[in-house]
Amino acid sequence: MALTAYYPTDYTWKAGDGSPWSIEKLVEIELGHNLEASACGGTHRMTGLTMAFNRHVAAGRPVTGVWKKLEDRIHECIDKAKQYQNADGSLSSNYFARPGKSADLAVCMGSAGHVMEFLATAMDKEQLQQPWVKRATLDVCKLFRKTKPVDVECGALFHAAHGLVLYREKVFGPRSFGKESAAALTAAKSN
Q1: Domain for residue 59, yes or no?
Q2: 82 in a structural domain
């Protein structure tokens, strides 16, 4: 994540031992890891890789080789999130591994929030408006209400909130906090 925030995806460098490295080489190494054995079901890894992919595409670079493999993995994870979605709209507590729902609200917040963050990073506005994604988003919102009286680990809350912010910005545009918004809110309250 950090490297692609500051460098283009074709960036290369030499390590202290003189060996050549590149963002592309890091992407290839990351793609070799098992998501199920990765932290938070591989969502951190996939969100970081997706951010690199989005930057690569935005720069007009070709989606070939390792970048095509990454694109395929991103689509595979989106498909798994959809396939493993629970009947009530919640995302699987088992991330991209298999269906499932935990009775522990904190576990549900952590898994759903992480997957929501990945989906909001990986999908465009049109994709995010699909019914299954809307149901998942609504469920994450409900989890915030349900967990209000529960002590939930801050990382789970952060990823869920960040996923919802990304979703909102892609679907509805950036939120405005200017004087116009305050005036509109005041006018709406007086009506």
Answers
A1: yes
A2: yes
Burial class (CB in 10 A: 0-12, 13-18, 19+), 121: buried
Residues 111 and 120: their CA atoms lie apart, in Å, by: 14
**What gap in Å lies between CA 136 and CA 112, rounded to an integer?**
8
Q: Please compute, for residue 48, the number of CA atoms within 13 A of its CA located in the half-sphere on the CB side.
A: 19
Task: Establish if 170 belongs to a structural domain.
Answer: yes
Look at residues 23, 132, 22 and name the one whose alpha carbon lies nearest to residue 87: 132
| Chain segment 1-30, per-residue pLDDT in tens | 678 788 899 999 999 999 999 999 999 999
Task: Look up the pTM and report it.
Answer: 0.87
Handedness of CA 92, 95, 100, 101 (dihedral sign): negative
Domain containing residue 144 = 2-175
What does each C-alpha distance from 109 to 35, 112, 113, 140, 185 come to in angstroms?
A: 19, 5, 6, 7, 31
Contact, 123 vs 133, CB < 8 A?
A: yes
Q: Is residue 113 part of a domain?
A: yes
- What is the number of structural domains in the chain? 1
107, 93 contact by CB (below 8 A): yes
